[in-house]
Design brief:
Layout lengths: L2 H10 L1 H9 L12 E3 L5 E3 L4 E2 L1 H14 L3 E7 L4 E6 H17 L7 E5 L4 H13 L2 E4 L6 H11 L3 E5 L1 E3 L4 E3 H11 L6 E5 L13 E3 H6 L9 E2 L3 E7 L7 E6 L1 H14 L7 E4 L6 H13 L3 E5 L11 H9 L3 E4 L1 H10 L16 E4 L6 H11 L3 E3 L35 E5 L12 E6 L14 H9 L5 E10 L5 E6 L3 E4 L2 E4 H9 L4 E11 L3 E10 L7 H15 L8 E4 L13 H8 L14 H9 L4
Parallel strand pairs: 4-17, 6-7, 6-8, 8-11, 11-12, 16-17, 16-18, 18-19, 19-20, 28-29
Antiparallel strand pairs: 1-2, 3-13, 4-5, 9-10, 14-15, 21-22, 22-23, 23-24, 25-26, 27-28
Helix pairs in contact: 1-2, 3-4, 3-5, 3-10, 4-5, 6-7, 9-10, 12-13
The structure holds coenzyme A (COA) and adenosine monophosphate.
């Protein structure tokens, strides 16, 4: 297929285009209503279709003769274990787990929170929920109890599944006490908590509420997949917005199944039997689309890795895995490659491994800087592609499409729009921008299948956050431009979201926490450049006149406060006390200017600034001259 004609058809006749793609999916009842526009500007895909995602990922693969093929290859240098599950073994595990969940009263539409590390049970739990039609919400293990409690209260789960611990390269992270604390904080109390006990650390169980997962599932009866409507939710994935309240991104079953199939085959060029490695965590959207659902629904072997790019045990780990599992293509975040490059700049460890199975590397989650891009391409001798997507879309918005001729790839850009996505650039007044002109990146409606069409229990917030600013378009929250050939360049978020080591975080939330300290009069938290993590937060605080606290004490209290409330992954390590903050005459803190000072960027002081001398004061505190 040719990229240009495919892309044009996807925009000119979206219903016909996606009806064709939907034929690749093994529905229980194939849809006849392909695209239904709703009055509020959102759309429903495949309204009368019926299917089950767990069936597509497991049972259907067995029916296609892949029962003995490895579905999930788990590799965990932090625990010293490796395990392989064939499609049949994985289906049997999932069916029994679903049976146990049903015996606890979990049914279609119920929510189940999964607070789990990167162990096979996390994938099994997701698939077991999908089998029952229960809606899972995976919470990343690096989040603190408070963040977990917020998600528990929003999702109101019937059941929570967790493990006794997670394993970082240097320490054991006890999950259960974090969950116990979250349940104390949360108003909503689920009837049961299932605990997977890991050998490194046993968790104590609260009688009556907590159940031993291993023991209970051993006696459970397997259950068959439940028939679901296309629009029934598969999962909720909470992601940072501009406020402290995360957004519950809702993924449907039908649109997602069609989108995953299209993405794995047409974008990533994978076919059944190939080995795919999505290097992420099940706590992020990439973990959902590219560790669990996408590769399995495409009949691929999916590698699931519990470890870091470095220090588990060294910067050669990724290449060892590529060689050992004969990985054909992988996804990872640029931050991981920067970490590897720092420790193995000349590829000494890389050269020890046979990478001949690898066809291509895909990077996303943050901008791929050109130096890392060139290094990776040189070292591996393979094509390295930047591509761009978000939790909201669930699959790539821009990417080179492996199976579409002429889709092209351009270093420095996150590449062209994938079929289905009408990517445009607008200025603040909603005027379309020409090639090379920067503005807000938007996507013309309808969004293609798989993209989020509502927020969990808050449709109004969805409309407000994404559809109202530019009528007829979805606002991505990213700024950038397109070049003459339609290649897209992402310049960064236009809101308070920052990206720390590929993790999306809200500076607004950190600011609320810092501002809540009794000694703080006002503050600004913003993202600054970091060599490895891309961005890290930096807080500037103005102390109250009557506060009796040393700067060092305040700094360590604020760092601890953010870690305690959001989690270690927030990485707020630097807090500086300043006399005042630069503001516009109307009192708005100029965060963008602060970021430029901290990043040594050249800029013209805005004319709206009340007193330009403040900028020199700040530069001195930040030691920027
Ligand atoms: N559970 C508990 N704690 C976690 C955690 C988890 N799942 N993940 C991270 N943390 C903790 C870390 O232990 C660390 O704690 P510390 O401050 O006490 O050291 C903190 O959160 C920050 O972690 P991280 O951002 O991972 O920093 P790092 O210095 O340990 O590692 C990298 C740096 C670049 C190696 C690492 O960030 C990385 O592998 N990034 C890739 C992430 C990725 O693949 N993202 C894909 C998203 S699509
Ligand atoms: P998340 O929802 O956590 O996947 O984060 C999505 C955000 O990460 C996007 O809105 C972008 O800001 C950023 N992002 C993802 N991929 C890229 C990329 N290839 N280049 C630049 N930014 C990216």
């Amino acid at each position: 297929m040719n990229y240009q004609s495919c892309y044009e058809q996807s925009l000119a006749q979206p219903a016909a285009f996606w009806a064709e793609q939907a034929r690749q999916v093994a529905w229980y009842r194939a849809p006849t209503q392909i695209l239904t526009p709703l009055a509020d500007g959102t759309h429903e895909w495949f309204a009368d279709g019926c299917l089950n995602t767990s069936y597509l990922a497991l049972d259907h693969q067995i029916e296609q003769g892949r029962g003995e093929q490895t579905a999930l290859a788990y590799d965990s240098p932090v625990s010293g274990s490796q395990q392989r599950f064939s499609f049949r073994q994985l289906r049997d595990e999932v069916a029994r787990l679903a049976g146990w969940m049903r015996s606890l009263g979990v049914e279609k539409g119920d929510r189940v929170i999964l607070y789990l590390p990167m162990i096979p049970q996390a994938a099994m739990a997701m698939l077991a929920c999908a089998r029952l039609g229960a809606v899972h919400s995976v919470v990343f293990g690096g989040f603190a109890a408070n963040e977990l409690a917020v998600r528990i209260d929003d999702a109101q789960p019937a059941l929570i599944l967790t493990a006794s611990c997670g394993l970082e390269f240097d320490r054991v992270v006890p999950y259960k006490p974090l969950l116990d604390k979250a349940l104390e904080l949360a108003r909503h109390k689920p009837a049961h908590v299932g605990v997977w006990q890991r050998p490194k650390l046993a968790a104590s169980l609260v009688p009556g509420r907590d159940l031993d997962w291993q023991r209970e599932v051993a006696d459970a009866q397997p259950v068959a997949p439940v028939e679901l409507a296309s629009g029934d939710p598969l999962y909720i994935m909470y992601t940072s917005g501009t406020t402290g309240r995360p957004k519950g991104i809702v993924r449907d079953n039908g649109g997602h199944a069609v989108a995953m199939r299209f993405a794995l085959e047409q974008v990533y060029g994978m076919q059944a039997g190939d080995v795919w490695w999505g290097i992420s965590d099940v706590g992020w959207v990439v973990g959902h689309s590219l560790i669990v659902y996408g590769p399995l629904m495409a009949g691929c072997t999916s590698v699931m890795y519990e470890g870091k790019p470095v220090r588990t045990p060294d910067a050669g780990t990724y290449w060892r895995i590529v060689e050992q599992y004969r990985v054909n293509a992988l996804f990872c975040a640029p931050t991981a490659m920067r970490a590897i490059r720092k420790e193995d700049p000349d590829g000494v460890l890389l050269c020890r491994h046979d990478l001949s199975s690898l066809r291509c590397l895909y990077l996303a989650g943050e901008k791929l800087d050109s130096s890392t891009h060139a290094w990776l391409q040189d070292m591996t001798g393979k094509p390295v592609h930047d591509h761009w997507w978000q939790t909201e879309t669930g699959w790539p918005v821009t990417a080179p499409c492996a199976r579409l001729e002429g889709s092209g790839a351009r270093a420095g850009s996150s590449n062209r729009a994938v079929p289905g996505y009408a990517v445009r650039v607008m200025d603040e007044e909603g005027r379309p921008q020409g090639a090379g002109q920067q503005g807000d990146i938007v996507i013309g409606l309808p969004l293609p299948p798989g993209c989020c069409q509502t927020l969990w229990r808050d449709h109004e917030r969805y409309l407000q956050a994404y559809l109202r600013t530019y009528p007829g378009y979805y606002q991505t929250g990213d700024g950038g431009y397109l070049d003459d050939d339609g290649f897209v360049y992402i310049m960064g978020r236009t809101d308070d979201v920052i990206n720390v080591a590929g993790h999306r975080l809200s500076t607004g939330e950190m600011e609320d926490l810092v501002a809540a300290h009794p000694a703080v009069a006002e503050c600004a938290v913003f993202g600054v450049h970091d060599e490895i993590k891309g961005q890290v937060p930096l807080a500037l605080v103005v102390v109250k006149d009557d506060a009796r606290i040393q700067a060092a004490q305040l700094q360590s209290e604020l760092v601890a406060q953010v870690r305690e409330h959001i989690g270690a992954l927030a990485c707020l390590r630097r807090v500086e006390v300043v006399k005042r903050l630069p503001k516009t005459r109307s009192g708005k803190i100029l965060r963008a200017v602060l970021r430029k000072i901290a990043d040594h960027e050249v800029f013209a002081p805005p004319s709206t600034l009340d007193d330009p001398a403040i900028l020199d004061e700040i530069a001195q505190v930040l030691d920027v001259h």
